[in-house]
Specification:
Length: about 240
Amino acid sequence: MEAALDRMVLAHSAEMVWNEALAYFEGAGFDRVIYADMTGQPPLLLTSFPEAFGAYYADVCNPADDPFFKYCCASLIPIATGSDYLDQYQYLTPSERRVIETAREAGMRAGFSCTFQPLSPEGMGGWNIGSTLGRTQVESILTEKAPSLRLVALYAHERMARLRQHRVAEPAIRLSAREHDCLAYLAAGMKCQQIADALGIKPVTVELHLRRARERLGARTREQALAIALSANLLRL
């Protein structure tokens, strides 16, 4: 993961970041990836599906019926995606199920969502990180790699957004020393209790520092705060 993040830091175009993210996901077993950022103009939709899938999807499915946008982008909590999970979603309409079944024809069997902007008047956005592997194999991979996969996805979004918008001279964001240390240890894969032990403070204090860091960075989750901090070069790892 660290090598992929380092390459994204050095990337000088959104396309380079996208390619680095895809390489990381594919290396982890996820070769059917969709990225949708509907928060800006123009909106951005990228995919690693076979090229013919886009035209087929447009002919067979109504994008407005895509359950990824309706359900996955409504929550920051990862949601299982793909045809191997259809038995869990009996509430889907026939047209919504057809979208998932169409993706299955292009190889997408199992995956998970990673939302960075829940559905709101400002738009929505997230990743559908899927695989041609089956549900059992995907769940086994996620047991070990889910946090790293989500961090790479969130960082890639932050980096692509910065490069797309050509941001310059942004006001400096300053983290306190403790906020910095808690995020840095979090980036290293440590849990709350481990961070507390390393810093000689209580776990509840670690939670407080992480919450303040989220607020300072304008993030909704710890992972998003970490992605923003890394993208802005605020952490010394």
